[in-house]
Design a protein that fits this description.
Elements: H1 2-26, E1 30-33, E2 55-56, E3 62-71, E4 78-88, H2 93-96, H3 98-109, H4 111-129, H5 133-148, H6 150-158, H7 160-171, H8 186-196, E5 198-200, E6 203-205, H9 207-213, H10 217-228, H11 232-244, H12 247-270, H13 276-282, H14 298-304, H15 308-314, H16 326-336, H17 344-363, H18 369-390, H19 393-405
């Protein structure tokens, strides 16, 4: 009959562990006592016994009593009986206000800093960059996360890396790249045709020109879905690293992402380049009034009945930013850091996703193959540069401090 003893002992251990962990998570004081007489005097109670009833006291104290018996003789007579009581202390009204007090305390202790940062934030967007509802929503979300709890404050501090990227990107329109350097249109087109052109109907054409004449509805939808996930999947993976791996893994990914963008923005100003679809519409002449165009993705909108790309590219003020293709760079970062997941299938999926986005960029006529390769080189360069910089003692100390704060 020892089987029954071992069986119910295992059950008790699991149940007892569960309630203890539950008490710790909820902040209750958990006590375990073999003697029910040690419990406070109560007027009314509920017990978890063989009948499955749970009792609570009139003063809101909760306790769970678990009774188990062992049988050792051949007639299954009870030879031993034990009772375990888990007592949860009542939660006072003051305890329920702890979170509220923490919020007010954070705002009160950091009031000057909050006012200063908020003033800089809104002055920048109102008088320089131009403010929109998105900027207001970002501010409110950050303020909410910072005031909610310590955990959400840490998360808000972690995502500041991505918000920095958004601020940089949003500021690009302040100084258009075509005002800094000459626009490259025909020379890039001829170079693309020379290195990656194909022979079709008696002429050498680019892959973009081939796909313009030969597109398939299934590929229209597939490439559109891949292109829409160029940022969501890399960012989601970095948040996975933040939640399930180490904070340093998340930082390495996010800072490489930020550095990739900085390098890409610099190249935008050095080599302003027109995308393939620009030549279809405007030829080889520079048109300062050229607006964004969904190009091949217009077929995605037509097939699905959605106007996602039409709406998205109509808001793109600067079209001369084809080199490097950051659409090609972001997915490659997931490949470079894919091994951190310790999941081979996920790493392979990232490789397939990257190749799909690269194909989508060319198929949609938004980028030449040259643009895609430049984007890949941009990501690899940022990855190697970050690894070198992070090994500098002073920078590494700052990274360690930051990792502890998130």
């Amino acid at each position: 009959m020892r089987y029954f003893t071992r069986k119910w002992t295992k059950v008790f251990i699991r149940v007892s562990t569960f309630f203890n962990q539950l008490g710790n998570q909820l902040g209750f004081q958990t006590t375990t006592d073999h003697d029910p007489s040690t419990l406070p005097l109560i007027n009314e109670s509920y017990e978890l016994q063989s009948n499955g009833i749970i009792k609570h006291t009139t003063n809101n104290s909760i306790y769970h009593q678990l009774d188990f018996q062992t049988r050792n003789d051949e007639n299954n007579n009870d030879t031993n009986s034990n009772s375990i009581i888990l007592h949860f202390s009542p939660t006072s009204s003051n305890d329920l206000l702890i979170n509220t007090d923490n919020k007010l305390s954070f705002i009160k202790d950091n009031l000057i800093l909050i006012i200063f940062v908020s003033s800089i934030y809104f002055l920048w967007f109102i008088f320089i960059a131009g403010i929109s509802i998105v900027h207001v929503l970002i501010y409110l979300a950050l303020f909410f996360l910072c005031s909610l709890s310590d955990r959400t404050r840490r998360f808000a501090l972690a995502i500041l890396i991505y918000l920095t990227y958004l601020l940089f990107y949003d500021a690009l329109h302040l100084v258009p790249n075509y005002t800094i350097s000459n626009i490259h249109i025909k020379d890039i087109y001829l170079m693309e045709k020379k290195f990656f052109g194909i022979y079709y109907n008696g002429h050498t054409i680019t892959l973009n020109e081939y796909f313009q004449q030969n597109h398939i509805p299934l590929l229209d939808v597939f490439t559109g879905i891949c292109y829409l996930n160029w940022i969501p999947i890399p960012v989601a993976y970095s948040l996975y690293l933040y939640r399930y791996k180490t904070k340093r893994d998340y930082m390495d990914f996010a800072f490489t992402f930020l550095l990739t963008n900085i390098l890409g923005f610099v190249v935008y100003y050095i080599i302003p380049t027109a995308p393939p679809w620009y030549i279809e519409t405007y030829g080889f002449e520079f048109d300062i009034n050229a607006r964004g165009n969904p190009a091949g993705f217009i077929h995605f909108d037509q097939v699905t009945g959605l106007k996602i790309f039409s709406s998205m590219y109509s808001k793109n003020a600067n079209v001369f930013a084809a080199i490097p293709s950051l659409h090609a760079a972001y997915p490659l970062i997931t490949v470079l850091y894919g091994s951190l997941s310790k999941k081979l299938w996920l790493h392979i999926a990232f490789v397939m996703f990257t190749l799909s986005v690269w194909f989508s960029a060319v198929y949609s006529r938004h980028h030449y193959v040259l643009d895609v390769l430049a984007g890949g080189m941009c990501a690899i360069t940022a990855y190697m540069l970050y690894r070198i910089l992070s090994r500098i003692p002073a920078i590494n100390r700052l990274l360690v401090i930051y990792s502890k704060s998130i």
